[in-house]
């Protein structure tokens, strides 16, 4: 059986970029932010995205975390305003590796929020989980996401052909990884 994932209830980080668990009260803001078409285009977030989709996503989180399947977090500012989301979208306990996913609301882009969030999450993963390799996969044309991976210290490994199925379409994926010990200070 997989170990569960325990994330601090008070969250991690500080100042302008904090990561914390999802709360019921976040639901409507998540629905509003996810209406930006770039989010379903580049991620597995469904489209259209309404109350039913959000409720299903929220309802699944606690049990998935307890089963060690995934960890989704809110990225918030100093006033607890939701900027976006990031998390462990896939974890392989036997092989000691996991993959991260992320999105930001349109307003929060262009100022380094996600680079900071991914650095913080990667640091927490290496400190808290038996994981030695963290990966990010982004479609080759998703330059904003690829730049986040690079700025956060991940190494580009190549393009995995026909790797992702997103909304029924097979797509290539640029593969990035960060190995324990490589996190930039
Ligand atoms: C991917 C996504 C999160 C990237 O957002 P972003 O705002 O470009 O990324 P960051 O928060 O790291 O900000 C980087 C920008 O802030 C700037 N910046 C300012 N201060 C910075 C700092 N201290 N550190 C890093 N970047 C900084 C950078 O120059 C960069 O701007 P530029 O792209 O114009 O050069 C966003 O485009 C998104 O949500 N896209 C849709 C969903 C998606 O594609 N998810 C990923 C699927 S694989």
Number of helices: 5
What CATH architecture do you see? 3-Layer(aba) Sandwich
Our Rg estimate from Cα atoms comes to: 15 Å
Q: State the domain count.
A: 1
Helix/strand order = EEHHHEEEHEHEE
Bound molecules: coenzyme A
N/C terminus separation: 34 Å
Percent of residues in beta strands: 25-35%
Molecular structure report:
- By secondary structure, the chain is of the alpha+beta class.
- The chain has a single domain (12-179), classed as Aminopeptidase (3-Layer(aba) Sandwich).
- Helix content is 29%, strand content 33%.
- It has an 8-stranded mixed β-sheet, sandwiched between helices.
- A hairpin with a 5-residue loop joins strand 3 and strand 4 (82-92).
- Helix 1 (27-33) packs across helix 3.
- It starts with 11 loop residues before the first strand and ends in a 6-residue tail after the last strand.
- The relative contact order is 0.15.
- The mean pLDDT is 97.
- It binds coenzyme A.
Summarize, please.
The protein has helices at 27-33, 38-42, 51-66, 113-128, 143-151, and strands at 12-14, 17-20, 71-76, 82-92, 97-104, 133-138, 155-166, 169-179. It is an alpha+beta fold. α1 packs across α3.
Keywords:
binds coenzyme A, Aminopeptidase, 185 residues, 8-stranded mixed sheet, 8 strands, 5 helices
Lay out the secondary structure.
Layout: E1 12-14, E2 17-20, H1 27-33, H2 38-42, H3 51-66, E3 71-76, E4 82-92, E5 97-104, H4 113-128, E6 133-138, H5 143-151, E7 155-166, E8 169-179
Parallel strand pairs: 5-6
Antiparallel strand pairs: 1-2, 2-3, 3-4, 4-5, 6-8, 7-8
Helix pairs in contact: 1-3
Bound molecules: coenzyme A.
Coenzyme A (COA) binds near residues 38, 43, 111, 115 and 138.
